[in-house]
Amino acid sequence: MILIKFGGSVITDKSVPLSFRKETVHVMGEAIRVLSESEPVIIIHGGGSFGHYYSVQYDMHTAPRHYSLDGFSIVRNSMVRLNNLILDVLSQCELRPYCCPPSVLVYSNDAPYHNNNNIPNIHNTIPERVRELQTIAESGMCPVTYGDAMWHGSGMSYILSGDVIMEMLSSILRPRLAVFTLNVDGLYESMETKKVIPRMDTRELADIAIPNNPQQNDVTGGMVRKVSVATEICNGGIDVFFVNGNKPDRITDILRGRYTGTYFSSG
Amino acid sequence: MILIKFGGSVITDKSVPLSFRKETVHVMGEAIRVLSESEPVIIIHGGGSFGHYYSVQYDMHTAPRHYSLDGFSIVRNSMVRLNNLILDVLSQCELRPYCCPPSVLVYSNDAPYHNNNNIPNIHNTIPERVRELQTIAESGMCPVTYGDAMWHGSGMSYILSGDVIMEMLSSILRPRLAVFTLNVDGLYESMETKKVIPRMDTRELADIAIPNNPQQNDVTGGMVRKVSVATEICNGGIDVFFVNGNKPDRITDILRGRYTGTYFSSG
């Protein structure tokens, strides 16, 4: 089982609202079809210039609050639109995409019971729904879920990012690999040199991944949260890769034991 | 609380694949915005020339079977596409649509536990997720769900129709009214006269609603299943209306105590 995240900056042009990079998704889809012939794959996509764009416009964040209901509705609708575009392309790639919006996978706070295993506690993941995705992937389809605006209960909402979904799914499904596609070649040593760190282990990650530290933010090229999620997944014993999604050979290369990008080694 | 079904033959042209009736949905949306100012509304839409069209092409039905996985994927994707079109229009009508695919509301057979209350037993409805829709509707948004192709477990799938979702939601939420919009003026006395039956009570319904009886099928103009669902809802003590969705005044008229269509009286 492989989890693959389609980064929002790969599948859309983040500088232009509602701009979908159809060709990029198509070449990633073709690469994933090759993977899926030997191993089940689940895809998680970000919001890019669709959901992410509107969530910024309406000042919505990951903490549950009384955000604008207009914003909540618009973010959610824009994700249905982006998801539709992605499903169409993955269908053309003969991946048999199975659409699974993240609301299927988590309870809101309205639910009378919660699940507080090792998942961020606002995300009341429903393990049987997550495991269902594995069964569906193993049956010859390709489940597709995505970051979204979520109902929290009592008029509140929050943004559930695709990166956090990667963490949720990894902790329950324990995939062999978790792959994050980016719009750059990997994790940079520094923004000045833009030299990609080829490999980090969990001890090195403990030094680097300090979320919300502005200095660290510079070091990682705005990827602090992604590194933080990668660290969590890696600490759980799962190998993580950051690769450039614009170069789909790098996705298939991972399976062949070579890679160009950043490898977060759990071993 | 009012449940409104957008019939597939109202919101699409069933004779032309993937044909969306944007203007019709827009005028229904405007009428529903008027309703929603005084009472929460939940919308359920059918598949028409999107999901229904492909489910016929791939010979998929309501009984769980090993249907084509290609067909399953295509039906599901086509419903995301139709749902996206509807959400956009309802957004323009300022209804603040909240997209809720039906997979959120029911467990598949893969789940370790089932819920067999008074719902058709293949549909393992999750009552807390259905009640969540009511909370969301009462908060000032308009939940939108739809008929879809559903994973059943063990490689099987089935079609969950929007009409059956009306029944599921009615039994749990007990709305004040359940309204089915059609592409005709109501339930016909016969296909020859095309005279609309203005009112039926539960006793009369017991005589007419015999599902899968070809003769009855003629009498009701191909609406046997819809009448069967209306009967179930009505037997539960909820008033049901069949109205022409192309004439949106008839939707708002219901609230004003007058109606043009068929009224299934629970009293």
Spell out the key features of this protein:
homodimer; Carbamate kinase; 12 strands; two-stranded antiparallel sheet; alpha/beta; 267 residues
Q: Could you explain how this protein is built, in words?
A:
The structure is a homodimer of 267-residue chains. Chain A is α/β, with parallel strands linked by helices. Chain A is built from ten helices and twelve strands. In chain A, the strands form three sheets. Chain A has an eight-stranded mixed beta sheet, with helices on both faces. Chain A is globular, with a radius of gyration of 17 Å. Chains A and B meet through helix 4, strand 3 and helix 5 of A and helix 4, strand 3 and helix 5 of B.
Nearest-integer average pLDDT of chain A = 88
> What is the CATH domain class of chain A?
Alpha Beta
Helix content of chain A: 25-40%
Low-confidence stretches of chain A: 112-120, 209-221
User: Tell me about the biggest sheet of chain A?
Assistant: 8 strands, mixed
- The CATH homologous superfamily name of chain A equals Acetylglutamate kinase-like
Greatest interface (CB-CB under 8 A), with counts per chain: A-B, 39 and 39 residues
Structural class of chain A: alpha/beta
The largest beta-sheet of chain A arranges its strands as 3-6-2-1-9-11-12-10
Give the oligomeric state of the chains in this entry, treating copies of one chain as homo and distinct chains as hetero: homodimer
CATH topology of chain A: Carbamate kinase
